[in-house]
Design brief:
With 179 residues, the chain is mainly alpha-helical. It contains 5 helices and no strands. Helix 2 runs antiparallel to helix 5 and helix 3 crosses helix 4. 22% of the residues are buried.
Length: 179
């Protein structure tokens, strides 16, 4: 009968050997991972601030405490953002290689696609606005969304896209002819 510490030691050795098969993230990739981590932590901090009744960064007159559905979404977003911060670091740190590659990539691509597709319609509005082709002024919630909130989402999506592509390339299994 095997002992638990011996099994854990073997698993750790196998995982360390697997991590050694892949090159470390480059300095640029680590900087991108740090930026995505900061993006997530800042967003979590704003959600916590809004959940406590803060209104800075929200459209005038908006409070999440007064809007139960948005308040609940806000409370769910805090741990999700903190998990995203950990994921951003896992994509560029050696310890991230200890997790199943498919799981890490699923999370990375999920974050990237969610953020990009969340922001894409507003990015079209922003392009129209910057080109001077908008028929009316940007006011209230539209101004907030097009000029601040959605570009922030797009930045996060682009950061996670870069991280997902880099992790995918860096950790891909060797092809039979390369082995």
């Amino acid at each position: 009968m095997r002992t638990a510490p011996a099994d854990a030691s073997r698993r750790t050795s196998r995982l360390a050997a697997r991590a050694d098969l892949h090159p470390a993230a480059t300095a640029r990739q680590r900087a991108t991972g740090a930026a995505a981590c900061v993006w997530m932590v800042l967003f979590a901090a704003f959600h916590a601030y809004w959940a406590l009744g803060g209104t800075y960064g929200l459209p005038p007159g908006e409070s999440l405490v007064d809007n139960k559905p948005l308040f609940i979404i806000d409370l769910i977003a805090i741990p999700m953002n903190l998990g995203g911060a950990a994921l951003a670091l896992a994509l560029v740190q050696r310890w991230g290689l200890f997790f199943p590659r498919k799981l890490v990539l699923f999370g990375a691509w999920g974050c990237a696609l969610l953020m990009v597709f969340h922001a894409l319609p507003a990015m079209v509005d922003l392009a129209v606005y910057l080109a001077g082709r908008r028929t009316g002024p940007l006011e209230g919630m539209d101004r907030f969304a097009v000029l601040l909130y959605e570009p922030y989402w797009m930045l996060g999506g682009l950061l996670f896209t870069a991280l997902a592509v880099a992790f995918q390339r860096r950790t891909r299994p060797p092809r039979p002819e390369e082995a």
